[in-house]
Design brief:
By secondary structure, the chain is mostly helical. The chain has helices spanning 2-24, 29-63, 75-94, 106-173, 176-221, 235-240, 256-270, 272-275, 282-304, 317-324, 344-348; strands at 310-311, 328-330, 337-340. Strand 2 (328-330) and strand 3 (337-340) form a beta hairpin.
Length: 349
């Protein structure tokens, strides 16, 4: 009974709104007729509901069951409830359907409700379809991009296969002497190319050490911050030195005595190679030490293999920097020995 009552309440609200509109706003003839028809339809539904209630009450009175809204816990009463429900459905099925009068607005209201429901569902479906269409377009664009990539790869592979086929055919027609001569020429050309690239890299490394790395290495050697912690190190900071906390001291006036102490400090840190530096600058001493260390590592690797070690004369900032940069590594059992890391081993394997 809950659903018909809710429908009646909605219809009653609609009729009340129509009455309020009629009281507040002058209505035309068609509006007045519509309001009257709504009132008649509402009264018809009330009459029909009253009749159904009377039939239900009569069935309940004959069976002795007070209510069928909730299932009874007693099996006998539950059985009586089911019999009442069965009898009600049988009467409704056998009885002729009660249709509204020809001039009733119920069919129009039902059609309007169904139409509104269809419109709401259609709007929701349109939103879902639009979302799926956008996703489908994105997938299509991705698939087209993948197809273009696959076509480019296929074309490149076909071109590579064609070139290799031509090379195989040409080599098959060469004599062993011609093939050996071509191979030697190719290896010689590759050797020249590698030597030229090596010279370029060596010059670039020397420029990097002199312009950027040398001052940072000198600062670390003099008790300053580790390379990378302080990027802007000037010659004045190197000349003044660093305190035990690693902070730069305040620059002092340059005197003959100060220059002598500065040169003594350079000789003490960098040894004999520091005394050969022009003007005794810490930056140049650190650059020279780094250059000599890298040259020694490269030379021993080229002469004896990448697994060969060099022996360090002291624990320097340059060696520590190469270790932190994962360019070199100490001997597992002797920290005085250093060698380059063999980067080509994984490639060869």
């Amino acid at each position: 009974m809950a659903t018909p009552i809710n429908a009646l309440r909605k219809l009653q609200d609609h009729v009340q709104k129509a009455k309020d509109t009629e009281n507040n706003t002058p209505l035309s003839g068609e509006s007045s007729v519509y309001a009257a028809q709504l009132e008649i339809a509402f009264e018809e539904l009330l009459i029909q509901v009253d009749e159904e209630k009377k039939i239900l009450e009569q069935l309940q009175a004959n069976s002795g069951v007070s209510s069928i809204d909730e299932p009874a816990t007693d099996p006998k009463k539950r059985l009586e409830q089911l019999r009442i429900i069965k009898a009600a459905y049988r009467n409704l099925t056998e009885a002729a359907p009660k249709l509204p009068s020809p001039d009733s607005l119920l069919p129009a209201l039902l059609a309007l409700r169904n139409t509104q429901q269809v419109l709401t569902e259609s709007k929701d479906s349109a939103l879902i379809v639009h979302q799926k269409l956008s996703e489908a377009r994105k997938r299509l664009a991705q698939e087209q991009a993948d197809l273009r990539d696959a076509q480019l790869i296929t074309a490149a592979l076909k071109d590579r296969i064609a070139r290799l086929t031509i090379e195989v055919q040409e080599k098959s027609q060469e004599s062993p002497e011609e093939a050996a001569t071509a191979l030697i020429a190719s290896q010689e050309q590759r050797k020249q190319f590698l030597e030229e690239e090596t010279r370029k890299l060596a010059k670039a490394l020397a420029r990097f050490i002199k312009s950027h790395l040398a001052a940072l290495l000198a600062a670390e050697e003099l008790g300053g911050p580790v390379v990378g912690d302080l990027l802007d190190v000037t010659d004045e900071m190197l000349a003044a030195g660093f305190n035990p906390r690693g902070n730069a001291k305040k620059p002092k006036a340059q005197t003959v005595n100060a220059d002598s102490k500065r040169q003594s400090r350079i000789d003490q840190v960098w040894g004999s190679q520091g005394g050969a530096i022009n003007d005794g600058k810490e930056r140049e001493a650190a650059a020279t030490e780094m250059r000599l260390l890298t040259e020694d590592l490269l030379n021993v690797a080229a002469e004896e293999g990448t697994g060969a070690y060099i022996t360090l004369t002291r624990d320097s900032a340059a060696a520590r920097f190469l270790i932190r940069a994962k360019v070199a590594q100490f001997h597992p059992r002797d920290a005085r020995k250093l060698r380059l890391i063999d980067f080509s081993r994984e490639l060869d394997e």
